[in-house]
Amino acid sequence: MGELFVVGMSWRTAPVAIREKLAFREEEVPGVVSHLVAQPGVQEALLISTCNRVEVYGVGDAAEPSARATRAFLMAQRSLPPSELGNALYQHHGPQAVRHVFRVASALDSLVVGEAQILGQLKSAYGVAGQVGATGPTLARCLERAFGVAKRVRSETSIARGAANVSSVAVELATRVFGDLSGKSVLVVGAGKMSTLAARHLRSAGTERIVVTNRSPQRAEELAAKIDGVAAPWEDLTAQLAAADVVISSTGAREPVLTVPIFKKVTKARRWKPMMIVDIAVPRDADPAIGELDGVYLFDIDDLDKVVQANLAERAKAAEHGARIVEHEAVQFEGWLRGQEVVPTIRALRDQCSHVAEAETQKLLEAMSRRAYSPEERAQAMHHLTQLIVRKILHLPTTVLRSSEGETLQHRVEAVTAMFGLTVPLAAPAADLPGAAPGAQGAADSARALASLDDELEAEVAADLAAEERSPLARVASGGAARNERRFREA
C-alpha cells in the first residue's frame, strides 16, 4: 500500500506572478493527471488548480521519492527551471499530508478563512481524477474523509458565518434591516465592479427585481444584462430610488449624487418605509446627512469594511475549533492507514486457515458418506476434526517459535502471547530462575512449553497424512482423538 503526499504552491508561498506560471486550465487537468499517474512510483493522484493554489494530492510507493518525481513532472509540464520557482513549491508526506488535505477542504488554509468555493473546487478535482482512473482506495478514502471533515467544521463552528468581503456584506446588512429579502427590489446606481458583485449576491439571496441606472445608457444596459436586471434612464433617478428597498451606489462622481433634497422627496414618496443605502464609492456618492432621515439606513465603504473585519475575527476564533476537529479526524484517518498495511497479511492468514479447515472437513464428509455412523462415532469424528485443524494451523508457527533464540525468541513469545490473549503462565517467571537474564529464561521456558508438544504433533500429523486412505472415523476409533485431547490438556 502506498503513502500519501502533497506537492504544490499556494497564496502562502508564492505571489500570483509565480502561481500563474504553474497554473493549469480546466481542460488541461484530465490529461495532466493521466500522465502523472504514469510516472514511476506514483500510484494515485489528483490536481487542483485555482487562483490561490496549484497542488497535487497523490499516493506513491514511497512518499518522498514520489513527491520528488511529481515536483519534477510539474516543472517539466511548464518548462520551469527550479531557480524560477525558488521555495514556492512545498512537499508534505504522511501525517502532514493528511492534515494539509483536511485543512484545505475545511477552508482553514484559504486566503479568506471559511470561504465555501474551495470545497466545490476540490470535489471537482476529485471527480476529474476519478474519471481518468487516477484515484484508488487510499486517495478515495482520504478525500471522502476530507469532505466529511469540512462538513463537520462548517456545521460545528461559525467559520462560514458572516460575510468576508465588501461585495457580499451587503446581503448581511440587508438581512439585518429587512429580515427576509424575497420580494425586495434593488437599484444599482453606477456600474462599478463592486456594485455589480453586491447586486449578484443580493439576487442570489432572493431579491425580486434589480434596476440599473447610469449616466451612460449603454453601460447601464450592459450591466443589467450581466446581472439579470433592467436598465432605467438616469433622469428617472428619484423615481427609481422611491421604488427601491436597497440601493447600491458606485458612480465615480466627485460630488454626492444621493443628496438630502432628493431623499426628502424619496422618503416622503415611500411613506418612510425602511430603505438601505450601500455606498461603495470613493469619493462617497451619498451625503452622510441622509442617514439621519427617518427610514434610511446608510452604510459607506468603511462601515462595510468594519463588518468584514469583525466577521473575519469571528472566523479566526472558529478556525481554532476547526483545527482541533481536523487534528482529531487526522489521527483517526492515520489509524485507518496503519490498519491497511496489515490487510494483505490478515487476508493471507484467513485464507490459509480456511483452506486447512475446508480440506479437512471435506475429507471427513467424504468418509462419513460411505456408511452410517452412530451419534457417538460422529461426536468423536467432529472432535478429531477440530484437533486436526488446530494442529495443522499451529504446526508451522510452533516450529518457528521453537527454533528461535535470544531476543528474537523473546519478541516472538511476546507477540504470540499478545495476539492470542494468553494469560496463563506456562513456566516459572524469569525472576524465580537463578542466573537467568531478565525475561530471557522465562521466554525460553515459555517457548519450550509451547513447543513441547510439537514433536508429538509433527509425528502425529505425519501419521495422519500417511493414513489418508483410511477412514478418519477408523482413526478416531483407535483412540487418536482421546490421545490428542490428553496431550493438549497436559501441555
- What is the CATH domain class of the largest domain? Alpha Beta
> Which blocks of ≥5 consecutive residues have pLDDT under 50?
428-440, 446-458, 465-491
Number of strands: 10
CATH domain topology of the largest domain: Beta Polymerase, domain 2
Strand order of the largest sheet: 7-6-5-8-9-10
**What is the fourth-level CATH superfamily of the largest domain?**
Glutamyl-tRNA reductase, N-terminal domain
On the 0 to 100 scale, the average pLDDT is 83
Structural class: alpha/beta
**C-alpha termini separation:** 40 Å
Would you list the SSEs in sequence order as H and E? Answer: EHHEEHHEHHHHEHEHEHEHEEHHHHHHHH
Approximate shape: elongated
Summarize the biggest pleated sheet: 6 strands, parallel
- Fraction of residues in helix: 55-70%
The structural domain count equals 3
Radius of gyration: 37 Å
Q: What fraction of residues sit in β-strands?
A: 5-15%
- CATH architectural grouping of the largest domain: 2-Layer Sandwich
- The number of helical runs is 20
Detail the topology: elements first, then pairings:
Elements: E1 3-10, H1 16-22, H2 29-36, E2 42-49, E3 53-60, H3 63-77, H4 82-85, E4 90-93, H5 94-105, H6 117-131, H7 137-156, H8 166-178, E5 185-190, H9 193-204, E6 209-213, H10 217-226, E7 230-232, H11 237-243, E8 246-250, H12 260-269, E9 275-279, E10 296-300, H13 301-341, H14 343-368, H15 375-402, H16 406-420, H17 440-451, H18 454-466, H19 472-477, H20 480-490
Parallel strand pairs: 5-6, 5-8, 6-7, 8-9, 9-10
Antiparallel strand pairs: 1-3, 1-4, 2-3
Helix pairs in contact: 2-6, 5-7, 5-13, 7-13, 8-9, 11-12, 14-15, 15-17, 15-18, 15-20, 16-17
